[in-house]
Amino acid sequence: MKSTVLTRRGALKCSLAWAGAAVWTHRAPRALGFTNANARPRVAAIGTGSRWCQRATGIDGPHGSAPSFVPFGDYVAVCDVDADRLGLAVDVVQEWTGKAPDAYGDYRRVIDRNDVDVVQISTPDHWHAKIAIEAMLAGKDVYCEKPMTLTIDEGRLMCEVCRKTGRVVQIGTQQRSDESFLTALAIIRDGRIGTIKKATCAIGGGPTSPVIPQVAAPKNLDWNQWLGPAPDAGYRYLAGDNGETQSWSRCHYEFRWWYEYSGGKLTDWGAHHVDIATWAMEKGATGPTLIEPLAVKHPVPFSAGFPTDDTQYNTATEFLIKATFADGMELEIRHDGDNGILFEGTEGRLFVNRGKVAGAAVDDLANRPLPDGALRAVYKGKEPTDHFRNFFDAVVDRSEPISDVHSHHRALTTCHLAGIAARLGRTIRWSPTAEKIVDDPQAQSFVSRAPRNGFETEV
Fold it and tell me: CA angle, corner 98, sides to 96 and 99, nearest 5?
C-alpha cells in the first residue's frame, strides 16, 4: 500500500499547498448545482454497510445516508471489502439511477479516479481518517460518518489537511441539523438559562458479549484489508440473536465494542451528544483541562490500559466521567439516565434529545418567542436545512458546512480523553493549546497509534 500512496503523492507533488491550488481549479466547473446532469457532483461510496444503506447489508430497514445523497449527486462508484455487500450496493444504486456504478474492493481505486468529486466514507472508525486525508489530498470533498477519528492525533492531522487543501468536509453528526438541537442552542445563545455551568451527556451503556471463537473469515470478506491500519488479529464470530448482524464478532457493526477499532459508546454516541454540548458551551476551539473517571466498568480485565482478554467485547459498559474546562465549566459523560443532554445554567435548566426539548425556557417560548433569525444565527448564518443538503450546498458555494472538522475534532477530543482516562483508571490533565496530556507519558502514548506496516498515512 505504501508504494501506491507515494505514487499518488508524487502525482500531487507531495505538497499540500500545491494540492489546494490544484483541486480548486479542478473542482470549480462542477460546483454549479444539483439539477444539471453535467454539473451534479459525482459521488463514490467507500464502505457500504448499514450506515450507508441497510439494504446493502441484506436488511430491509430505513437507516443509512445514501438515499439522502441521491437528490444531490450521482453515484459513480462503490467500494467495500465485503464482496456480498458490494454486490448489493451495486444493485441498490442501479435501482435508484438506472445505471450500475463501478465496484471496487480497494478504496485506492476510488481515490485515484480523477472524475470523483465527493467521497462518502461509511467504513469502520479505524479507517475514517486515513481515507478522508487521502481523499482530500486527491482533490475530493468528503462526507465522513462519525466519529471522525480513532485517535486525537488523527483529528489534528485531519484539521491540518483540510485547512491546507481547502476541501469541504462534513462529519455525519446530523444532530447539528436537527430542529430540536438547534432550538436548544438558540435558547442558550439568547441567554434564556443564563451562563452554562454544566452539561451532562447521557449516552447509554456499552454491550457485553459471550466468548467469541476465532474462526476462518468468510470468503466474501477481505479480512486483512478490513483490519487495515489496526493491529493484526484473528477473525472472531459467533452467530446468535444479537443486533442487526444476528451475531457477535470483531467485524460488521459490532466493531464498535472493541478499542482496536473504536472508542465504544464514548465515541459512538459521545460523538453526537458531546459534540452538541461542546457547541452549546462554545468550546469548539478549545478543550477540557482535567478528565476524571469517577466510575468505569469494563467487561474484561485491563493491564496498562490494554485489555488482556481478546475473546470478548472490551469497551466500557458503564461509566461516569467528568471533564472540567479552564473556566470551571463541567461536562459529564455517563451511561445511565435519559439519553440526551441536560444543560444547567445560572438561571435554569434545559434538556434536549432527538425527541424533545424541555425546560422552563422552552415553555416560555409561547409568550416570548426567540428573535427572528435565531436558528439561522446558530446555523452559521445559513437557513437550517437537511444535514446532507447543507453539505452539498457547501460543496457548491465552498463554505464551511455545519459539522466542520475543526470543531468536531475538539469535541471528539473530549471523548477520546474520556476513553484514555477510562482505560487507565486515573485522572489525566490536558493542555488544549498544546493538545497534549500533561505529565503522564503513558497516557500521552494513547493520543496516537502506530498503524500496521503497509497502512501508513502519508502526507
Answer: 110
Domain that holds residue 287: 200-338+406-447
Give the whole-angstrom CA distance, residue 175 versus residue 28: 30
The answer to whether 147 and 263 are in contact (CB under 8 A) is: yes
Q: Please report the beta strands in 259-376, taking only residues with DSSP state E, as ranges in sequence order.
A: 290-297, 302-303, 306-307, 318-324, 330-334, 340-345, 348-352, 357-358
**Tell me: the pLDDT tens digits for 143-184?**
999 999 999 999 999 999 999 999 999 999 999 999 999 999
Cis peptide before 147 (omega within 30 of 0): yes
Q: Do 228 and 121 belong to one domain?
A: no
Tens-place pLDDT, residues 21-68: 333 333 433 444 576 666 899 999 999 999 999 999 998 878 899 999
Q: What is the pTM of this model?
A: 0.93
Are residues 64 and 131 both part of a single domain?
yes
Cell numbers that stand for 313 in this block: 467485547
Rounded CA Rg of the chain: 22
Which range has the worst mean pLDDT, 2-11, 141-150, 220-229, 341-350?
2-11
What's the domain count of the chain? 2
The DSSP symbol for 221 reads: B
- Asked if residue 353 belongs to a domain, the reply is no
DSSP 191-213: TTT-SEEEEEEE--PPP------
169-171, strands of its sheet edge to edge: 102-104, 74-79, 42-46, 118-121, 141-144, 169-171
pLDDT of residue 184: 98
Q: What is the CATH number of the domain that holds 83?
A: 3.40.50.720
Residues 206 and 132 placed together within one structural domain of the fold: no
Burial of 22 (0-12, 13-18, 19+ CB in 10 A): middle
User: Whole-angstrom Cα distance, residue 333 to residue 226?
Assistant: 30
Three cell numbers written together for 178 = 436537527
| Residue 153 near residue 445, CB atoms below 8 Å | no
The closest of 275, 54, 62 to 173, measured between CA atoms, is 275
Element (H, E) at 441: helix 441-444
Query: Where residue 201 falls among pLDDT bands split at 50, 70, 90?
Result: very high
